[in-house]
Amino acid sequence: MGFFDKLKEKLTKTRQAFVEKVEQIFTGRKIDEAALEDLEETLIMSDVGTKAASEIMSGLREKIKKGEATDVENVKELLKKEMINLLGSPVPLVISNSKPFVILAIGVNGVGKTTTIGKLASRFRSQGLSVLLAAGDTFRAAAIEQLEIWAKRADTQFVKHQQGSDPAAVAFDAIIAAKSRNIDVVIIDTAGRLHTKSNLMEELKKVKRSIQKAMPEAPQETLLVVDATTGQNALRQAEYFKEAVDVTGIALTKLDGTAKGGIIFAINRNLGIPVKLIGVGEGIEDLRDFVPEEFVEALFS
Ligand SMILES: Nc1nc2c(ncn2[C@@H]2O[C@H](COP(=O)(O)OP(=O)(O)O)[C@@H](O)[C@H]2O)c(=O)[nH]1
Ligand SMILES: [Mg+2]
After folding, report:
1. Is residue 93 part of a domain?
2. Does residue 50 sit in helix, strand or coil?
3. For the segment 142-201, what is each residue's pLDDT rounded down to a tens digit?
4. Which of 87, 110, 129 is the last residue of a domain?
5. What's the pLDDT tens digit per position in 202-216?
6. Which ligand 1 atom minimizes the distance to the CA of 118?
7. Separation CA 274–CA 271 (nearest Å)
8. Ligand 2 centre from 29 Cα, in Å?
9. For the domain that residue 238 is a member of, what is the CATH number?
10. Of 87, 115, 142, which closes a domain?
11. Which bin fits 30, alpha (ψ -120 to 50), beta or left (φ > 0)?
């Protein structure tokens, strides 16, 4: 199966919840205001969010007024264009030549941080870069082991401390080690499970300060991982993290097997932080650059 077909397959549930509904709304029906209102409701129900939905609809209404849509296929085509427009140009995660390039991965427990780190590490390795993973989620021994397994699988270096130790110290040591070993990329895992949100944010700030002690220009990327299956909750989490740390990119995971893929529009429209990566499965290859046109095409085709 080709790259695009695989993406299509992974997005099946979102397509069913959304594009198939659009077809139902417009098939054998006049394209009038009532139909457009049904469409807007479908957009909102698919987690696209009110803001993004109303922007998509206003663009669409204009074109329909001009008589550009006469049947369901036209409407779909116009809708597709509006959606691609709204998402804007792709913003890939680019490794600059400041060395080591430090990526700090943050996000609440269970969203897929460690898995995303493993997939990313494997991608960088296949590009010929050397990688060091840092076990900054020191809460549970299992979390450290999980990252270590990914490090082995992706053939990277690995820095850990004991369970319960200070994550800021792990991050610091990892960067110092990477500098002395001339490593290209460091990816730092973190915990997402402190008792209160403010504790978690304080800890992340401390980790960041510690990273900057080891390397003032780091982290060059602060990647917030959010889980698409949580829908609007993902958006709220992102808003919270954004206030506490400088998030430079989002990885949206678990787009496979959820009907809530529309959340990507709300995240893109409401946060001002680019979605750089999408997760579409648990395997090592199931991480992709987020390319709006490709994503929307896969939804509609
Ligand atoms: N289906 C699917 N599962 C994922 C994806 N990313 C992560 N997971 C799964 O989500 C669960 C939690 O992932 P983990 O990386 O441990 O989350 P963390 O607590 O944020 O580090 C694991 O079972 C992963 O295999 C994805 O893109 N798709
Ligand atoms: Mg983890």
Report:
1. no
2. helix
3. 999 999 999 999 999 999 999 999 999 999 999 999 999 999 999 999 998 866 778 899
4. 87
5. 999 999 999 999 999
6. 15
7. 8
8. 49
9. 3.40.50.300
10. 87
11. beta
CB-defined site of ligand 1, < 6 Å: 107, 109-115, 192, 253-254, 256-257, 279-282, 286
Quote the pLDDT of residue 3.
86
CA separation for the pair 274, 62 (Å, rounded): 27
Atom of ligand 1 nearest to the CA of 225: 20
Q: What does pTM read for this prediction? A: 0.96
Span 109-122, average pLDDT: 97
Distance (Å, rounded) from C-alpha 94 to C-alpha 29?
A: 46
Q: Ligand 1, from 14, 108, 115: best to mutate by most atoms within 8 Å of Cβ?
A: 115
Using most ligand atoms within 8 A of CB, pick from 255, 282, 288, 289 the residue to mutate for ligand 1: 282
Adjacency order of strands within the sheet including 157-159: 157-159, 131-134, 185-188, 101-106, 221-227, 249-253, 275-279, 287-289
Q: Which ligand is nearest to the CA of 116?
A: 1
258 and 156 belong to one structural domain: yes
Domain that holds residue 15: 3-87
